[in-house]
Amino acid sequence: MSDADQTQPLAANPRQIKPGEPEAPYHDETLPPIGEHRGPDSHVGLLDVEEEVDRVELGEDDDTAGEILSIKVFKKLLSAIATLAVLIGLSYAIPLPWAQPWRADEDYIPYWNLIGRELLGQGAAVEAEADEAARMAARAEQAASDEQQAPIEDRQVVAPPPKTDEQPRYPDYVAHALDPELDPDAKQVLDNVEALAPYYEALTRTDIGYAGAVTRAGHWGDSVLGNDGITSALRRRLQARFGDAGHGFHALKQYDASYRHQGVRFSEAGNQRWSSCFIRNRCLDDGRYGYGGVAVWSSGGAQSNYGTVDTGPVGLKVSRFVLYYQRRYKGGQIRLRVDGVDDHVIDTAHPLPEGVDSLPPNERPADADAWAIVEVPDGPHSFEVRAIGGGQARAYGVVLERDGPGVVWDGMALIGSFTSRLGEFDPAHLAAQLGQRDLDLMVFTFGGNDMTREGSDLRRTMQPYIDDYTKVIALFRAARPEAACLIMGPVDHGERDGGRVVSRGIVSRMTEAQRQVALANGCGFFDTFAAMGGEGSIARWKSEGLMSGDLAHPSARGHKLLGAMLYDALIGGYVEFRKQRAGQVMVVGD
What we know:
The chain is an alpha+beta fold. It has helices at 71-93, 112-119, 123-146, 197-208, 229-242, 427-437, 463-479, 505-520, 528-532, 537-543, 556-581; strands at residues 190-191, 214-221, 248-251, 265-269, 275-278, 294-298, 303-307, 318-327, 333-338, 342-347, 368-379, 382-389, 393-401, 406-413, 441-445, 484-488, 494-497, 500-503, 524-526.
């Protein structure tokens, strides 16, 4: 084969030079030839070689150049369009909804975005929706960036004023750097703020810095409190503002995958696991579910481990562990171990008369609530709770606290619970639990699961739900009349309507029902639905990643934003409370 017969590299085939174009070589000689094989040790990259481009040119001699499509082709095209139009028309005439490209109950209309919205003046509304969604996204980013990352410094302790005939008075309020910047034109989302006075009174003592001034809140809710999202956001913000008095309450068992707290270490161990009863399941005849709504028991081998965390702004120190348990006839023993070495054994059995091993049923002492308090030097610690036999031991949870001044925000996520399940508590038992916890504020966030009743007893009226919630609030207020009460309304829930996401109709009805319960029973009411943006907020929050795909639960970012919103409302009310009370007599406490 001669040299002339050999195939030339692609780069050696120059393209045709157009008339008037300078006769420059097609190939850049500084780059490897197009099509040239590169060895394995070559470091030439994709952007270091020329691109090979195939060109197709129709010349003047091409038979179809410049020819107009024939009438025959046009007839075929028109016939196809007519057939499609007839088929579409039949889908409406028969009707066949699955074949219809547009339905009257759908938001989508062909070419509507391009023409219809502007003709009917709806373009501005669409832009307003987008602007509102962007505003919420910006607030979420701000809420995340505002969370303190460095460890919170301990507060300076102030000795309470001596008890004299002259009562101390509220000092003038001095603004704090973590006070929210409230928009005077924003919609009011906290109703009946006057009902929160007992909480604000306790918060004032903590704010001044009195020794031992710990302000406590207990927050019960359904799965919207899962993963300690909203409650953790509130806890961090309040402790950054008023001082870290500890993580608060934690159950002895992770009774649901979404029961996971932040700012505390927790695990279960042992050769057995705790048996348990969750108030959602209404499985205890005596109504003794414990402060957190979950009772556990074991005859030996079950263990729960707690500890402070190593990093973060809160949860780094503890000075007191409190075990909530039940004293019962022939109860078992529980071993408490601090830092892996210091053991305390708790006998949960009622003491029997000397020389008596058992009692007939009618003479046995009734079950009673009890608490074991273990004091430790303020700092990082671990704590073990283990059932070691001798009978069945029953318990409810552990509190991790510090001496203060500071605040605690307990989170009790009762996953999957209807509001009425809180009514399963035995009244005397609940009073003992809340009294021991010494709460200043009780917060309730329910309603998500009750929305499933929209198709049954809540179809035409919300009165059955109002009755349920009223009974719950009455039970808790009777158990702890000293504490303030706050109902946090439900988050927006959505459903898919054709091609769009809309708010479920029951959300606004549920919100108003809860507002009615709150105002009628002396509680504050936080309008979560309004804070999120009202009707249609579910779509906006979902578009910005603030709601999960089930259109019912906030995402992690959404949790932080809701926590920030409630914090702003609470502390905005506190600032006004302090300004109004300046110079008035103040109750310092015991």
